[in-house]
Amino acid sequence: MKRSHAQPSLSSVRARWRRDTVELSAVFVAVAVADLVANIVVHGHDGPVLLLASALALGATAVWHSWWTHRHTHAPPGSITSTSGSAAATAQAQAPGLDAETLPAPTAATPPEEVALWRIRVTVADSPGSLASLCRALADIPVNIVSMQAHPLAEETVDEFVVRASPLLAPQELSRALVAAGGSEVWVERADPHDLVDVPTRVLTMATRTAHDAAELPLALRQLFGRCRIRSLPGESLDEDELDGAVMRLRDPAGGVVELTRSQPPFTPTEFARARALVELDAQLGPRVPEDRATLHVSGERAPHTMGEIAVRRAEPGDRAAATAMHARCSSRTLRQRYHGPVADVDRYLAHLLDPRHGQTLAVESEDGAIVALAHLLWDDDAAEIAVLVEDAWQRHGIGGALVQRLTELARTAGVATVYAVTNSSNSGMIATLRRLEVPLDYQVEDGTLVITAHLSPTLALTAPQ
What we know:
The protein is an alpha+beta fold. Helices cover 39% and strands 24% of the residues. The chain has helices at 10-43, 47-71, 85-94, 130-140, 171-180, 199-212, 216-225, 269-285, 320-329, 332-339, 346-353, 399-413, 428-435, and strands at residues 116-125, 144-152, 156-165, 184-190, 229-233, 242-244, 247-251, 257-261, 293-297, 309-314, 359-365, 371-380, 383-390, 418-424, 441-446, 449-455. The N and C termini lie far apart (68 Å).
């Protein structure tokens, strides 16, 4: 609470002193001029004529000023006055014909397309009046502060704002205003409507999703901290959690270390505490996979031991034995297309793939309960890798295409806009399946390995094969 009381800075005291001195000098000059005019009127021969001429001049000036005011409309109260040449150039470039010196201030009733949202972080001294100075500087631009949170440090505080501003306002103007108000290490980026949700509500929502599904933990961390790199390091260990500016290392309840990296802005102790709370919640709840069972229709000739319909569900670590048995029934060619070479240690691969903290895995069951196909969606920073393995006897019945569609829908629901598949360049089946998604695809071939990247659209539909 102490930071909310304003304390005048040395520069503001000097400015007030100069203003008072100028006003006092103006009073003395006005008195001297009044005395001179009085002497001329009383003792001069043309005193009355001088008074009449002065009155006429003042009247003419008032009439001209009124006409000029109505002819040249002034900007409405609260408009943005740009004193920066770059800001004026930006305004003219983005809105031809608009006066670059006056930008409309956003209000609560301003349509969404006419405002811009910005996320701002600025470091200030933890002293009385620092927060008030920042808020006053933002109000003078003017922008509307829609949310604010503080990240206390040892002797400083990182204040984070989400503000609503005119779309013509350059971010450099925000930075200059905050630096002039005493801030440092200013970081500004465009925000989206999701940032308008207050932090406690957002954290509770993420905790609920994590409690429902262990695979949501990496997604929750990414949504909480924005663009960051999340890596799982199963072979490493920590005595205690660590925070070092851009890197956060947390002990994984399942073993190993969860490492988060974000160059800008660096993590704060407040964010470190939030991440630890989410990871500790995940540890308390233990392994969990939601019940999600659906029916998959088999196309073409019926595969062995089916009636044309098979079940698809979320896989879990307990499926490792059944998945290992499926690998034993697959041909070496099928395994090479899936793993890009011979599989030396299937059990080690499956321990990683079936762990829900690394992504989501779908299992296809035959009528007798055997697993005949596996599909993996593995988190990889802002993207996700998709991989499908179908037992030889069940191939060419549309199972692989249906699983790829489900994986891409899961990725889109999780907020992942880019998925990729790594396979052999001779795997025509995977190439054809991804092409039927009808989304932009990128191809990269290196040493016989093909990486196909799909850029998902808001509406995703897999077309039926011809």
